[in-house]
Amino acid sequence: MPAQQKRQHINHQQITFAYLLKQWIGPVFFITVGAVIAAFALEEFLVPFTILDGGVVGISMIISQLSGMPLGVLTIVLNIPFMILGFKRLGMRFLVKAIYAMVIFSVFLGVFEDMKAVTEQEILVVVFGGVLLGVGVGLILRYGGCLDGTEIVAMFLSKNTEFSVGQIVLFFNIIIYGVAGFLFGPDRALYSLLTYFITSKIIDIVENGMEQGKSVMIITDHGKDIADAIYSQLGRTCTQMEGKGMVSNGKKTVLYCVITRVEVPAIKKIINDADVSAFMTISDVSEIVGNHIKKKKSPVHKK
Q1: Which of 50, 88, 112, 259 has the greatest count of CB atoms below 10 A from its CB?
Q2: Domains along the chain?
Q3: pLDDT in tens, 205-232
């Protein structure tokens, strides 16, 4: 084989392996870890105390408590219609990862079923069960899998209503917890609702990670110096706009940039060092489309 063709063949193999690692090997590994953690949280913390998860898993837990049917089997069966909807909307890759996550989740529910509960203290059950469940489900969602079809239904309903996906899921879960309160007592419903709030917050942290976006708006008299410092230290570009103080009647430079959560202390230090009189606001960003890190272009875009 000629040297050039050999190099091309090696490069093709490297690209193929990198693609598999990024798209399948890595995600499958973390989906497996997440499914095991979620199963452990349910069987070793929540199920023994009849504290319910939300969505399809919560419905499965209610049916399992009343009928004695295996929780893992119920979770898969009840999710089948939602997986069909998810396939039509999100494609084959989503379906494969979701089915894999559910299978691993169901298997380990059976593995952990006969083990003794970790603690008898209900407040510890709620807190640590909710945290572990949030970590497990967050890993699954972050890497393209799914354990619960409720979010898929919420995505379809959200398109035709004024409600967000999160609001619709919360509405479904309130109904589920209401039924749980009627069947198992109001304290079970309240514990379940508290667990849901803890789990939801942990899911957000794990799914978005420390890369969750923050938008920063800076009003200053030293726009060029601050923009250069942000670019050189953080690699972030700024959009520059011109403003006018309503009291001072003087011109102000307004800088806008997007950073991550871990960069917040660094940008605060930059502002304090460059202009102690600067005014800065920091807000959450739900989604970032496009590349907000520029390494070779000018650090300031004027508008």
Answers
A1: 259
A2: 3-209 (no CATH), 212-302 (3.30.70.120)
A3: 786 665 567 889 999 888 888 999 888 8
Between 209 and 203, residue with greater pLDDT: 203
How far apart (Å, rounded) are the C-alpha atoms in residues 240 and 209? 29
127-141, 180-194, 285-299: which range is least confident on average? 285-299
Cα-based torsion angle of the residue sequence 159, 160, 164, 165 in order, rounded to the nearest 10 degrees: -60
How far from chain centre, in Å, is Cα 126?
20
> How far is 194 from 188, CA to CA, in rounded Å?
10
Phi and psi at 145, nearest 5°, equal: -100, -170
| Calpha distance 275→256 (Å, rounded) | 16
Q: What number of CA atoms fall less than 13 Å from residue 180's CA on the CB side?
A: 29
